[in-house]
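Changelog-linked ticket: phosphoenolpyruvate example.
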Amino acid sequence: MNKTVTDEITLRGISGSPGICIGKAYLVEREGVNLIKRYPVSPEMLPNEINRFKNAVERAKKDHARVIDSLGDDLSENLNILETHKVLFKDKMLYGKTIETITNDQVNAEWALRRVSRRIKRMFDDIDDPYLRARGNDIIQVSDKIMSYLVGESDLRISEINKRVIIVAHDLSPADASQIQLERIKGFLTDRGGKDSHTSIVAKSLKIPSVLGLGNAKANIKNDDILIVDGSAGIIIINPDEDTLFRYQEKMARFEAIRADIERESHLPSITADGVVINLLANIEHVEEVVAAKDNKASGIGLLRTEFLCLDLNRFPTEEEMLQKYGELVELMQPAPVTIRTLDINGDKFNPNIDPVEEANPALGLRAVRFCLEHEDIFITQIRAILRAAAFGNINLLIPMISCVEEIIGVKSCIDKAVLKLEAEDKIFNKDIPLGIMIEVPSAVMMARELAGHVDFFSIGTNDLIQYSMAIDRRNRRVAHLYQALSPAVLKMIRLIVDAATENNIELVMCGEMAGDAINIPVLLGLGLTNLSMNSGAIPVIKKMVRSMNVAKAQKDVQVILGFQTVQEIVDYIQMEYRDLLPYKDNEE
Ligand code: PEP
Ligand code: MG
């Protein structure tokens, strides 16, 4: 066979969701750029508009400098291009002309930038010399980058994509990711983002392969380039040669065959080989996902992230809107339980913009219950809707980000106020529902014994617990190596939580993504967890693992594991003891 000569490039990122796909690249920022609207700017507002443009340039420049800093030696061939781009940010042709156009035409910055960049591009297109002609693309890339800061990521029209493509984006916000239509997308990759960022959670539940945190993949990819996304290994291959394509087609077929086998067994009971029942529940973000949860045989909804309703509406929902959604959900799931979490906003998901203060570290700021306790009216409206929906089915009320006893006392006082109002208004509701808190902040772990006295259940949120205990941003690729569910520190924290829940005789669930990764199951069962909630796509795989496990052995293994000092020792031990049980082992090379 003649070997085709291609410019195959392999880039390593972080596994966002498992699986392999092969397809054509679709760069989403260009889509956003094409949707720029023109609007007039009054003379007195022109300085503001120019400042907006200058700020976008500064932010794009900073971002660009970060990309350059983060490049390892192996990518140094890209460095020249990126250094060229650095100069172009303040290039007279682009920067100067855009400001001139805003002023002279009295138009918005986006429109002015697009007009100027297109003109420059046309000029370069007319040049005969291929090297100089290619510099026109550099201008477009720089202007796209500035544009993305001007228009904001929410302007990407990702939901309108109607081709079976692989999305290539600098970043996908939770709002963008939740709009992706499964049947239209083969997979996606992003330059930013890390394991268990919300984008990866959505990809997992949609069962589409994704690789995140690639650094500067986007700069290497053009629309329609052939891509391989190996979400399991966390790598992408741009323009693969024939041999690579063939190898990956086989690998993809093997993966699909294993997945099909696992799914075929998903109706079997979730019980270990030595007879311990493990409840596998689904984490969902939209009521519509109940279908997938049921298909995957979830025994209930372990977490409804209500903030996604805000994201969809781009505002706070009314009590009636929430009641309608939650009522529908519990009725669909009846008699299985549904855990509804009050808003976890102001972190990485929905930012309501009602607060003029811009926080440097939103994840450490006025997030989730902290925000709700400051805005009692918004909190009480949510509680009212949840208590009213509880009249129609089996609901648990869950509060995110509790970090001290004072907060749970504050929450209970808001619940009392909601109940009094509902009674006064003669509404139908049910106040006798279990109240739980997320344990996802290290201070809550240390206070777990005391907190357990105030609530009916704990739900361990490992996505945040890992980021807060290791002091890393879960979306930041540069510290992704520290994001390890099997870190000894995380395991010791889980043990403290289990002990506190057991001593106080309260229910315990884990709803962080740690519960949805088969390699963690021996430790979790060994530590005594029996309720695991995860993206519904992971349920069949976890069930397969559960059914092959022996809890008595896992308990002994945990004693050994808790004696290790490093993640690697823990992983090696689990691999050694459980290698034959781990699903997808047959697909490893
Ligand atoms: C978690 O932190 O583990 C969790 C389940 O909540 P979220 O991912 O919504 O922050
Ligand atoms: Mg959380």
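Closing comment: Example verified and attached. Residues 30-34 have pLDDT under 50 and may be disordered. Residues 88 and 139 are 7 Å apart (CA to CA).
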